[in-house]
Every structure is written in C-alpha cells, then in structure tokens.
Amino acid sequence: MQHIEVKMKVIETFLSIQGEGIDSGLLTYFVRFSGCNLRCTYCDTKYAYSGGIEMTIDEIINKIKKSKVKKVCVTGGEPLIQPEIEKLSNKLINDNYFINIETNGSIELPDWTKQKNISISMDLKCPSSGMDKKMNYGNIDKLDSKDSVKFIIGNDEDYKFAKKWSEKIRFANIIFNPVYGQMDLKKLAQDVIDDQLVNVRMGVQLHKIIWGPTKKGV
C-alpha cells in the first residue's frame, strides 16, 4: 500500500525576533499553523483560525533550514491540534533544533512534549479572554523549569486570577503579559511591585512595539 504523507495547514513561516515569553528578544524561526479550538476576545491572530497552505513535514523543515537559526517556535492557532505535530517535532529534534511550543492551555500536554529539546509556553486564560473555563489545569503539574505559563491580563479581575494561580505553580516560569492597548503597563508593573510577586516575570509583546500591532510575519 502506498504511503500518503499527511500535510499540515500552515499560515506562515518566518524568521524574526521572539516578541514574548522567556525567549523574548532571541532570533527565532516561526511556524504558524492554521486552526484553533478557542476564540479569545483579544485574539491577535484571527487570520490563523482557518485557511493556510498544505505543507509536508519535509517542506516545512526545508523552509526552516534556509536559516542558520536552531530555535523554532511552533505556534498558531493551536499547534497541538495538528495531526503530525509530534512527527515534525521529533524530526527537528533529531536535527538538533530546540522547539518552543506555544499552546493555549486547553489541550492535555502529550508525553512527547517532555523531551529536553522542547519547551512549552502555555497560556492560562484569564476571565476577560472568555475562555478561562476551557483550561486544562492538570497541565500545570506537567511543566518544569524550561517551560512557562503565560497570563494575558486585561483588567483587575484578570490580575487577581493570575496572582491566585501563580501561587500554585511550582516549577514553570510565570509571565504576566498585558493585553496590548488595553491594560496599562505602569499599573500592571506597579501591582506586581506592590504585591511583591517575586516569582513573576512581567512581559510585553516586543514585536508589536517594534513593528506595530497589525504587522504579520514578525
């Protein structure tokens, strides 16, 4: 029987500066997949809900190899709903790539994501996202020191939610990001200072500061 390779729906691939998370500022190759199971109120990648170009794993890897960068961010959409995402990740690891998987926190993290060359950047959706009831909170116990939990904070209720959950996270890095253009940066910073959240790293979306909030492929 002839083997038919499953193709993956890719919205865009590009080389850029990582704009958020613990790798913020580092040169990274991005692969953005199509499709997401959530609909967050503040979503800035709605263009990745559907569509995209069908690509084989080898076609994706050949794109990545055109750069010298060994750090790959797999994002979306929601990359963990892609049927061949494990196979792609394993092939990249075999070629000595380091992979950061950006996931929305609703899908149970599979065991293969625990490999040493894989780090997880997992959202834990706050109430203003409208998706906080969709979270898989069991994922928190699957994370370690190379992984991170990101809270996107849009208001005071979100901050209280993030603060409460951050106290329950034992190993992973904790990042508070403001909703761009909605949450006041100075207020969020002052709240972190006043509450002395020593285990929290405050972040910003660096790519939006550099290229603006609507630029794609950055």
> Could you give the order of the helices and strands?
EEEHEHEEEHEHEH
Strand order in the largest sheet: 3-1-2-4-5-6-7-8-9
Rounded radius of gyration (Å): 17 Å
> In the CATH hierarchy, what is the class?
Alpha Beta
What features would you describe in this structure?
The chain has 218 residues and is α/β, with parallel strands linked by helices. The protein has one domain: Alpha-Beta Barrel (TIM Barrel), CATH 3.20.20. It has helices at 57-64, 85-94, 156-166, 185-194, 206-211, and strands at 8-17, 27-33, 53-55, 71-75, 98-103, 118-123, 148-153, 173-178, 200-202. It has a 9-stranded mixed beta sheet. The mean pLDDT is 95.
Any chance you could write out the topology, listing elements then pairs?
Elements: E1 8-17, E2 27-33, E3 53-55, H1 57-64, E4 71-75, H2 85-94, E5 98-103, E6 118-123, E7 148-153, H3 156-166, E8 173-178, H4 185-194, E9 200-202, H5 206-211
Parallel strand pairs: 2-4, 4-5, 5-6, 6-7, 7-8, 8-9
Antiparallel strand pairs: 1-2, 1-3
